[in-house]
Every structure is written in C-alpha cells, then in structure tokens.
Design a protein that fits this description.
By secondary structure, the chain is mostly helical. The chain has a domain at about 20-95. Helix content is about 80%, strand content about 0%. It contains four helices and no strands. The two termini are about 30 Å apart.
Length: about 110
C-alpha cells in the first residue's frame, strides 16, 4: 500500500483493478451470512415465541435490524463496485486512446 502523501503507481492501480472481483464477492458473502443468520433466527427462535405477539416481535426484531443493515451495506458495496468498474472502464479507454499529458486531457 502507498502512504497517504504519495500517489499510487500504475502497477499499484492495476493490482487494485485486478482485485475488484474479490471485493464484490466479499460484499455478497457478508450479505449471505447476515441473511442466513436471519433465516436461522426465524426458523429456530420465532416458533418458540409464538405465545404472544409481543414475544414474537421481540424475538425477531434484532435479526430484522441486522437484515436491514445488511441490505444497506450491500447496496453501498454494490454502488462502490459499480463506481469502481466505471473508473476502470474510463482508465482503459484512456489507455486505448494513447498516452496523453494532463494538459491535453483538460
């Protein structure tokens, strides 16, 4: 990794671009773990607490919150993934156009 004050080299940028699929899979895996925990809570905890409505709601409230947060994080992760893919597309089209100086791009 680079320090905060230095700019990444072309090799470091290319290495990060190659890892974009890994990050997307990590986001999806995290969401699947949260969803699996919710399904386990619904299947295991909810039937034991069906005696009253308040017990049923209390037993499933925390898993619902986790699923909601998981959906939010999944949306953020996919949004960042798409933004990154857009940047990769732009960098590749710039590379296909040929090397240009910063002044020529402006």
């Amino acid at each position: 990794m680079t320090t905060e004050k230095s700019h990444p080299t072309e090799d470091e940028i290319e290495d990060r671009i190659r890892k974009v699929g890994t990050y997307s899979r990590a986001v999806r895996t995290g969401f699947l773990v949260i969803l699996s925990a919710f399904l386990l809570a619904v299947g295991g905890v909810l039937p034991a607490n069906l005696g009253s409505v308040s017990q049923a709601i209390e037993s499933i409230l925390l898993p619902l919150i986790f699923v909601g947060l998981g959906l939010i994080l999944y949306g953020i992760g996919m949004h960042l993934h798409l933004m990154h893919l857009n940047l990769v597309r732009q960098l590749r089209s710039d590379a296909a156009d040929g090397p240009q100086s910063v002044e020529e791009r402006s």
